[in-house]
Design a protein that fits this description.
Residues 1-33 and 288-302 have low confidence and may be disordered. It is built from 5 helices and 24 strands. It starts with 25 loop residues before the first helix and ends with a strand. The strands form 6 sheets. A 5-stranded mixed β-sheet has the order 8-5-6-7-9. The chain is mostly beta strands. The longest helix has 6 residues, at 26-31. Among the domains are: 1-10 and 33-95; 102-151, no CATH class; 242-346, Immunoglobulin-like.
Length: 347
């Protein structure tokens, strides 16, 4: 059978009722096949998936063969004839091609033109360089009807921020781009449950660093077809320079003290310094990890820097109480981040 024949117009079926009532026994009701979420069925030449929409169980049709195949969990071998109960489910909205798919039009007036599907819209490429430099590939391209998709802003170059619905590879971690930021995808099972392949991940560029982290993806439920990309939120720099150490452990007076300090983001190497403290002079300086001494203003590639007593024989003086230090880290481009941490000293 020609697969494209599966996507004809939905025929209107009129059920002719006889004048005699139809009697259904209890046994018949029990034997009625269940209607399973996520099941692919064919009714009058149209392929549907049984899903939940607006809180109701419905059968949702695909717009084209390409739309069906864009979800990697869909296979022709899984499409079965609908039961009576499945046929009579309410018809939901059309299922668009999966977000992040390169979908090429198979009909006039834009036949052969390829688009990125993003948030159920189509974004065109202004030139060939915008396509290839953005990391997109025709290897994953599919063909189908895109005329029903609303148009999104064109993609003009490969250095712009990637669009919602695509997957992004950042420091060997894969994320889904949503309108609220990027959501980490912890493993391949979760990734593939949403119909993506790991090979489709785009390598993050410098513009993608502006995405905010928006949580973690969970495995798709059988009644879902695509993740909720949410509403647009203010974005922030993912590569923002910051001190990630959140606290200093309690110190004991008369004992040596050592605590690692760590930063992330920005451009290495880092330069560390202390800017302010209310502790009496002669306590602690910044030194290198693994060394007993150090400088209060160290510039180098070593990670992490250690906040410690100056030498192995130097101990904390007998100042009991809680004191603060403001630490400053400066990256190779001169960007700075500050954090004030408290240190409690006990007897």
């Amino acid at each position: 059978m020609n697969k494209k024949m599966l996507f004809g117009l939905v025929a209107v079926v009129t059920l002719l009722m006889t004048s005699h009532p139809v009697v259904i026994s209890a046994e018949t009701i029990v034997s009625t096949p269940s209607v399973d979420y996520g099941k692919n069925i064919i009714v009058n030449g149209t392929v549907y998936t049984i899903l939940k929409e607006n809180g109701k169980k419905v059968k949702r049709p695909y717009t084209s063969e390409g739309a069906f195949l864009s979800y990697s969990f869909n296979k022709w071998s899984n499409v079965v004839s609908a039961s009576f109960e499945e046929t009579n489910l309410p018809t939901g909205s059309f299922i668009p091609p999966r977000d992040g798919t390169i979908m090429c039009s198979d009909r006039w007036p834009d036949q052969g033109t390829c688009y990125l599907v993003t948030d159920s819209k189509k974004a065109g490429f202004t030139n060939e360089n915008a396509f290839y430099s953005g990391g997109y590939s025709y290897q994953w391209a599919l063909y189908g009807d895109v005329s029903f998709l609303q148009s999104a802003t064109h993609i003009e170059n490969g250095s712009e921020m990637r669009r919602a619905g695509s997957i992004l590879s950042w420091n060997n971690v894969i994320y889904l781009i949503t309108n609220a930021g990027i959501k980490e995808i912890p493993n391949t099972e979760i990734l593939e449950s949403w119909g993506y392949w790991p090979q489709e991940a785009l390598i993050a560029n410098s513009s993608d660093w502006k995405f905010a982290k928006a949580g973690t993806m969970t495995k798709r439920n059988s009644y879902e077809i695509r993740p909720d990309l949410g509403k647009t939120k203010e974005i922030q720099d993912l590569n923002e320079l910051k001190i990630v150490t959140s606290s200093l452990p309690t110190a004991i007076a008369g004992q040596p003290y050592s605590q690692s300090l760590k930063a992330s983001g920005g451009t290495k190497p880092y330069r560390w310094s202390t800017e302010d403290t209310n502790y009496p002079s002669g306590c602690c300086v910044l030194g290198l990890s693994g060394q007993s001494g150090g400088s209060s203003d160290y510039y180098g590639m070593y990670e992490p820097v250690v906040f410690n007593t100056q030498t192995s024989g130097f101990v904390l003086s007998n100042h009991i109480g809680t004191y603060y230090w403001t630490f400053v880290v400066t990256d190779a481009n001169g960007k700075q981040a500050r954090k004030t941490l408290n240190l409690k000293i006990i007897q």
